């Protein structure tokens, strides 16, 4: 841009007259322009300076043009040196008195800069023309290059009395890398405890990223619930064969054509759920399963050789059977089940209905009832910042395990009170409240020989059961699990997309066992191969077995985001990541359309 400098100098010094450019015979073109930095390697997030240096090789210069200096804007970002001036600019040096051009095209990665002298002054020697402040955005290798062709007057040049004396340039190559993985902290430093089994095999226990000399780093009370492991479905059938205690206070209260059943669940630490069966004296025998035959082997003579129907399965302490026809005697049997699928001894009661009178009897001790819906003195609470909702009943806090349970028992979302963890913990923990609308025994339960992953087959697709807690939440049975060869299992497609029945939201199920809400149809179709026909409709309980995928980053990108309520929060450093006890293995990869679909919110701190 030698011509550009002299046109500007012409205006400054010659009052608009025409200046002729002459290259004198024998003049040596020896000046050099170079880009210099203190290092050639930086990490993502670093800022560094690069200097544009001149060496006139004993000649005098009265004008310099940098037109252009190229850089890669996907790897480096120029930091503005004059924030009070419009646009992005680099820091001008003082070799020459007048800065005529100073601009940065951040989109295309172009720097345009020029200086000239005034009053007949000139510069001779070596010095810094300007300084550029860069910030590293991503990992990669980039070369910053000057536009330069020898003797050309339309690119970079150094002018001396009408002659371009620039004979060479030195470009700069920068290698940028991702920051090293943070030094792992010990489990004790993170406030955890090393356990011999995966954290997912314990109750009230979660994984931490701390290191252990052996075993697994866990936080929480970590109460043992059964043998086996989680983390990717690697668990084995438990060896516990001890049945839970018998259900207490099982009674039937009649109300026209319905029966209110109530009971007290056993206090065993591994209690999982109960089952209730009804049998009638008016029908012939129909024992259709070995399990029912085994359970009813100890029932009183009234239930022998009768039609038996399962009417309830869950962990509540009350159930209302509706639309019972009058004029019949009905008998009920209840059994407790533990986490290892052991059943207790049965408890029995009966109800006699007629068109004019009703009565009830119970061969166990009579007792009170605990219902799912709110009654006098009952409250709904959750700790601030937590999603778990508890019913406060009879001085105890009872976790309502699923949204399906909440809705089934008629609770009101608007009645939930937010309280401190201290207030919530002041109530001793009682039995959880749970309802399951679907019996998953009707679906095949498969695993491949030699592979620990367990799958439930629904709608011709295989749904991965990611850990033992999910297995128990669905009330699956170990004796229903069948081993098949890998080829047979591979015939079932992976259930990648799930939605709850009656709900519009579609979720992607990640390979590592998390669910991520697909926030728009546009995001869904942005992935090649996604088809709406692949969305499988399931019960809300099935979705509940997968935790939410709240950590994402763009494929090929470096920035990691925390997703909350459809907004993305940048996690600016490994220190912030670890401060929030995130797990690096839980980061999901998304495409550009999906990452851009999230509204940008404030970074985490």
Describe this structure in words.
- The protein is elongated, with a radius of gyration of 37 Å.
- The strands form nine sheets. Strands 2, 4, 7, 8, 10, 11, 12 and 14 form an eight-stranded mixed β-sheet that branches. Strands 1, 3, 5, 6, 9 and 13 form a six-stranded mixed β-sheet that branches.
- It contains ten helices and 43 strands.
- The protein is mainly beta.
In short:
This protein is mainly β. The chain contains 10 helices and 43 strands.
Which properties best describe this structure?
single chain, 10 helices, 605 residues, 10% helix, Immunoglobulin-like, elongated, 6 domains, six-stranded mixed beta sheet, mainly beta, 39% strand, eight-stranded mixed beta sheet
Alpha-beta classification: mainly beta
Would you identify the regions where 5 or more consecutive residues have pLDDT less than 50? 6-27, 225-238, 281-294, 354-373
Percent strand: 35-45%
The domain count comes to 6
Mean pLDDT comes to 78
Give the proportion of residues in helices.
Answer: 10-25%
CATH topology of the largest domain, anyone? Answer: Immunoglobulin-like
CATH architecture type of the largest domain: Sandwich
Give the arrangement of secondary structure elements:
Elements: H1 2-13, E1 31-37, E2 41-43, E3 47-61, E4 63-70, E5 76-78, E6 91-92, E7 98-105, E8 110-116, E9 123-136, E10 140-146, E11 157-160, E12 163-164, E13 166-170, E14 172-177, E15 193-195, E16 202-207, E17 216-224, E18 248-255, E19 258-264, E20 271-280, H2 290-295, E21 307-314, E22 318-321, E23 329-338, E24 347-353, E25 358-362, E26 379-383, E27 390-393, E28 396-399, H3 403-408, E29 416-419, H4 421-425, E30 445-448, E31 454-458, E32 461-465, H5 468-473, E33 481-484, H6 486-490, E34 493-494, E35 497-500, E36 507-509, E37 515-517, H7 521-525, E38 535-538, H8 540-544, E39 551-554, E40 560-564, E41 567-570, H9 574-579, E42 587-590, H10 592-597, E43 599-600
Parallel strand pairs: 1-13, 2-14, 26-29, 30-33, 32-34, 35-38, 39-42, 41-43
Antiparallel strand pairs: 1-3, 3-9, 4-8, 4-10, 4-11, 5-9, 6-9, 7-8, 10-14, 11-12, 15-17, 16-17, 18-19, 19-22, 20-21, 20-23, 23-24, 24-25, 26-27, 27-28, 30-31, 31-32, 35-36, 36-37, 39-40, 40-41
């Amino acid at each position: 841009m030698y011509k550009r400098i002299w046109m500007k100098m012409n205006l400054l010094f010659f009052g608009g007259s025409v200046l002729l450019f002459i290259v004198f015979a024998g003049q040596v073109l020896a000046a050099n322009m170079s880009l210099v930095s203190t290092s050639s390697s930086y990490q993502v997030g670093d800022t560094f300076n690069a200097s544009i240096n001149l060496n006139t090789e004993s000649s005098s210069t009265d004008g310099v043009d940098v037109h252009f200096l190229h850089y890669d804007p996907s790897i480096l970002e120029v930091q503005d040196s004059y924030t009070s001036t419009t646009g992005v600019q680099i820091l001008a040096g003082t070799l020459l008195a007048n800065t005529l051009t100073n601009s940065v095209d951040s989109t295309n990665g172009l720097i345009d800069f020029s200086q000239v002298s005034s009053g007949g002054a000139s510069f001779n020697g070596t010095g810094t023309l300007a300084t550029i402040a860069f910030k590293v955005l991503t990992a990669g290798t980039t070369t910053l290059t000057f536009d330069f062709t020898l003797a050309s007057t339309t690119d970079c040049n150094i002018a001396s009395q009408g002659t371009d004396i620039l004979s060479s340039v030195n470009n700069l190559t920068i290698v940028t890398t991702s920051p090293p993985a943070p030094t792992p902290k010990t489990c004790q430093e993170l406030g955890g405890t090393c356990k011999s089994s995966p954290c997912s095999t314990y109750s009230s226990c979660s994984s931490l990223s701390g290191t252990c000399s052996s075993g697994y780093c866990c936080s929480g009370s970590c109460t043992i619930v059964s043998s086996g492991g989680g983390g990717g479905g690697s668990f084995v059938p438990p060896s516990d064969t001890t049945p839970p205690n018998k259900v207490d206070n099982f009674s039937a209260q009649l109300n026209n054509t319905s029966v209110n059943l109530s009971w007290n669940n056993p206090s065993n630490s591994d209690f999982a759920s109960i089952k209730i069966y009804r049998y009638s004296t008016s029908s012939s025998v129909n024992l259709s399963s070995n399990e029912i035959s085994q359970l009813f082997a100890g029932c009183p003579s009234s239930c022998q050789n009768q039609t038996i129907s399962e009417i309830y399965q869950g962990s509540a302490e009350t159930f209302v059977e509706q639309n019972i026809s009058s004029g019949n005697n009905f008998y009920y049997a209840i059994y407790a089940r533990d986490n290892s699928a052991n059943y207790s001894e049965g408890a029995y009661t009966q109800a006699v209905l007629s068109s004019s009178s009703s009565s009830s009897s119970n061969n166990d001790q009579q007792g009170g009832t605990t219902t799912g819906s709110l009654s006098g003195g009952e409250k709904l609470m959750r700790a601030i910042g937590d999603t778990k909702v508890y019913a406060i009943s009879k001085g105890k806090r009872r976790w309502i395990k699923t949204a399906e349970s909440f809705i089934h028992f008629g609770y009101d979302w608007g009645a939930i009170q937010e309280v401190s963890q201290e207030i919530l913990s002041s109530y001793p923990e009682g039995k959880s409240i749970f309802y399951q609308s679907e019996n998953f025994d009707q679906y095949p339960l498969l695993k491949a020989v030699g592979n620990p992953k367990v799958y439930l087959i629904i709608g011709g697709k295989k749904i991965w059961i990611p850990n033992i807690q999910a297995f128990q939440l669905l009330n699956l049975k170990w004796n229903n699990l069948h081993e098949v060869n890998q080829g047979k299992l591979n015939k079932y497609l992976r259930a990648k997309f799930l939605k709850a029945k009656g709900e519009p939201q579609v979720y992607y199920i990640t390979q590592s066992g998390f669910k991520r809400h697909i926030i728009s149809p546009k995001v869904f179709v942005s992935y090649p191969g996604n088809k709406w026909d692949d969305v499988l409709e399931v019960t809300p309980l099935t979705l509940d077995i997968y935790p939410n995928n709240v950590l994402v980053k763009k494929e090929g990108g470096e920035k990691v985001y925390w997703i909350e309520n459809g907004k993305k929060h940048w996690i600016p450093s490994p220190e912030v990541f670890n401060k929030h006890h995130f797990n690096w293995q839980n980061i999901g990869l998304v495409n550009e359309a999906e990452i851009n679909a999230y509204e940008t919110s404030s970074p985490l701190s």
